């Protein structure tokens, strides 16, 4: 939803970082693959998961506004939750990316993580209500 506020180049960076992050725990789940496929289809990005050797410093220069950096972290955390939990390897990588983007404020990262978690809770609660029929 917020990724539509990014430029095409910034969306490519989000995809590349997300594909790299999905492999952080050496197990790309079906849910993560679904997220990456949907993201690539929605924004016309080539679906390519071979992002192991990406250069963070080069990619992150494209994220030239605070909003683009926050949206990127939101998308990365959202991907991390797709397999049911925000694992240690994923957390470490997200925090590393946040630091490289100059977002060293732990409270901001916690707010973004809470925002994502609340979104998942909102969807889950709605699905539960619809299943009551």
UniProtKB/TrEMBL annotation:
InterPro entries: TerB-like. This is TerB family tellurite resistance protein.
């Amino acid at each position: 939803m917020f990724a539509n506020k990014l430029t095409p180049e910034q969306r490519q960076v989000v995809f590349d970082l997300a594909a790299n992050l999905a492999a952080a725990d050496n197990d790309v789940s079906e849910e993560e693959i679904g997220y990456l496929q949907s993201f690539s289809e929605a924004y016309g990005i080539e679906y390519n998961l071979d992002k192991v050797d990406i250069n963070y410093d080069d990619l992150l220069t494209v994220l030239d506004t605070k909003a683009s950096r926050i949206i990127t972290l939101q998308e990365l955390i959202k991907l991390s939750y797709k397999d049911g939990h925000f694992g240690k390897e994923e957390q470490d990588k997200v925090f590393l990316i946040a630091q490289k983007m100059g977002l060293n404020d732990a409270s901001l990262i916690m707010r973004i993580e809470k925002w994502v978690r609340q979104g998942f809770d909102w969807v889950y609660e709605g699905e539960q209500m619809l299943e009551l029929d």
